[in-house]
Amino acid sequence: MIPVLDVKAGLEAENEIYAEEVHRFCKDRGLFLINLMGSPGAGKTSLLTEILDHLGADHSFGVLEADVDSDVDARTVAAHGAKVVQLHTNGSCHMDARMTLEGLKALEPDLPQIVILENVGNLVCPAEFDVGANLKLMILSVPEGDDKPLKYPLMFTVSECLVISKMDTAPIFDFDVDRCLSHVRALGNQMPCFPLSVKTGEGSDEFLAWLKEVVA
After folding, report:
1. Which terminus, N or C, of the chain has the lesser number of Cβ atoms within 10 Å?
2. Domains of the chain by range and CATH?
3. Is there a contact between 166 and 144 (Cβ–Cβ < 8 Å)?
């Protein structure tokens, strides 16, 4: 008989150990960690800079920029006052807890109060690996379509807040917020949802007020 090894199960078990380490690291240092997830082009960096611009006066921020390559987003975020660490995954489609812990340690010794991990852009792999964050925040853009919870159920199951971005393009695309939310609720997830547009400011105040309260 040929032996069969469940390699993924081993990876998940190892990741859980590191996720607990991240939890302890953050708790011991009074640090709030946000895992920001979404597709390429969904508006993760734009939302991130919006957060920095509006909450940066009250809190110190650090950003872990995870990319397969390049430092384009890292330079954009740094210009908004955050302490940034660029993380290259060298082809990996997600961040795991071990990588996240390394990134957090790279922010020492002057750790900020809030760290945002901008995860690698896709709706599959980042949902499978707990990085030990205090908040799993996902962003879905209007051009992607309101059927994405049906196609990527795990992401919409594990996330704890949904931002629907680029609402200024809603008249162009056949995106129905209520229909999207009905798909999310069918998965058993009652997470808050904030439709907004960083470009026009629509809905941003409500989201930022909610996030400020959660962080506090």
Report:
1. N
2. 7-215 (3.40.50.300)
3. no
Distance CA 56, CA 77 (A): 12
Query: What distances in angstroms separate CA 81 from CA 27, 74, 107, 170, one per listed residue?
Result: 24, 11, 14, 31
Contact present, 98 and 18 (Cβ < 8 Å): yes
C-beta of residue 163 within 8 angstroms of C-beta of residue 137: yes
Which residue reads 């999310």 in tokens?
184
Q: How many Cα atoms sit within 13 Å of 152 on the Cβ side?
A: 22
CA nearest neighbour of 33 among 104, 121, 105: 104
Per DSSP bridges, beta strands 32-38 and 114-118 are: parallel
> pLDDT tens for residues 152-176?
999 999 999 999 999 999 999 999 9
pLDDT digits (tens, 9 = 90+) for 121-140: 899 989 999 999 999 999 99
> Buried b vs exposed e over 26-51: b needs ≥16 C-beta within 10 Å?
beeeebbbbbbbbbeebbbbbbbbbb
**51 near 34, Cβ under 8 Å?**
no
Single pTM value for the model: 0.91
Q: Which of 96, 166, 186 is nearest to 132 (CA)?
A: 96
In this structure, are residues 149 and 181 in contact, taking their beta carbons and an 8 Å threshold? no
